[in-house]
Request: fold
Amino acid sequence: MDDWTPRTIAIAAGRPHGPGEPLNTPIVATSTFEAGGDSVYARSDGTETWHALEEAVGALEGGHATSFGSGVATLSAVLDTLPVGSSVAVPTFSYAVTRGAMHHAEKMGRITVTELEPTDTQAWLDCDADLLWLESPTNPTLEVMEIETIARGTRGRVVVDNTFATPLHQQPLKLGADIVVHSATKLIGGHSDLLLGITVAADESIAAELRGARTRIGSTPGALEAWLALRGLRTMPVRLAEQTKTAALLASRLAEHPAVTKVRYPGFGMMVSFELATAEAADKVCSTVRLIRAATSLGGVESLVERRAWLPGEERVPAGLLRFSVGLEDPEDLWRDLVTALG
Reply:
């Protein structure tokens, strides 16, 4: 597998092998196992479906994967491994739920939290936190952080939310990170029909900590959700390649549109954020688009748009910023929809 490309790994990893074995790992819908084998109870030991998904994602990221009931559950598990009184650094512009959960833990007296500008690399090197939570590109401002410089220049444990980039665009463990987290709800699943999260640890000892946290918290994935995520993973390379081409095209056109004041696109991936002059103008786009759907979340085959500043915790996001998750529709159909909505 070491000599396979990521596209091949996404299709081939985590499959049963041997005469008479099914081509695809089936949905294993059980909570318990008959005594005498390696597995006793699904919450602690997992199922074949979980294991197949974890093997495939772990192979893509180059580490040891653990699946969870949601992306947010991966954050809870990481925080659960920290001693009381630990210090945590998080980007000022990052997923609002991540920052909200961290500040809740701070309010409860468990940790202290420092927010740092994502691209102020020196501030990250100087912060001396026990845990550095990186997000690159950031949500929703799409800023790119210097993962390797930070990971190799700090003493703390480094976690990278790799949901937007996926292992097809960056592999943070190879850059020195300790843990990668994914909301598999997004691009890995790819069809807006499941909730699931995945951690990938560089070392088995860290993976064991996270599996222990999963058991304690009870944040296990469902059988159907794990199977759907694995099925979605198989097509992620071809989906993301097409979505990336369309995103780059639309980003360049949006940059030329007179109603658009700023386009944020890091040069890869399927996420584009663009700004209009006012919140009212952005809201009008959301209410006018017909093909693009006004909804939260991202990474599915359908294009979604959302004005992020209306959400609690996103007050610092520019009022007219629209987060655009580019799907698999025809680029020209998407452009016509945008042009009509922009007026």
Summary: Residues 223-256 form the longest helix (34 residues).
